[in-house]
Amino acid sequence: MNKLYKTMLRSLCLAILTFSFSQVPAQIIFDNFDSYDVGSTTGTNAAHWSTWSGNVGGMEDGVVIDDQAFSAPNSMLIAEGEIQDVLLLLGNKSSGRYLLRWMCYVQGGSSAYYNIQESEAPGVAWNLDVFYGADVQGNPSAGGTGVVAQTGTTFTYPEDAWFMVSHDIDLDNNELKLYIDGTLVEQMPYNGNLGAVDFYSINQQNHYYIDDVLFTNTPALVTFRVDLGEMTPDPAGVFFAGNINGWSDEAMTNSS
Length: 256
Known about the structure:
CATH topology of the largest domain: Jelly Rolls
Structural class: mainly beta
Number of strands: 18
Low-confidence stretches: 15-24, 243-256
Helix content: under 10%
Distance between the termini: 16 Å
């Protein structure tokens, strides 16, 4: 490998790595509730939490507890009673691709519910409604089974155990993917903006916990393959290939 080739390859590697690092996802929200006082409300602790009425600190607000947690010591409780109505404000995003996820714990024999709305202003439009242990009218049903209201798709989830709820939301291509406990359970159109998540106490049997909430943008995948044949006398042809989410097995190999 001649000196010119080495120099140009180093420069190319540096340029691509610099570009890659510039594309690292920007964390918008991460909340594990651990810095909040037990017994306090989420809306009084952080600006990204609110309630349906907009009044924080009351019975409608999320409650910080330490009797369950995925990452100790704290989580947020949405209890029975049909009173709590907690909004996670996402900023009314109109473009881009986003990862939205949290850990959830549904008490055995209980229900849980959330929806994703197009606006931080409550009630503008519901783009996703997910029920656990309840039918689409909010009536209690068999535990361990959930349903997506928009499509009727059903899924299973563990009771009395933490599991991940994850959404891949592509606003530029109007698509949402929903993963429950690591399994893709729904792929559906998502039209409109990304405004807020509503964690609501859906019925008198509602009892669930939320922890480790993450909201972040997801950069577009950029794949590249650069022919370095002009820079080296190697007749077999040398190339440099990969993508910004991880180098491929081809990276810095000889095509022969």
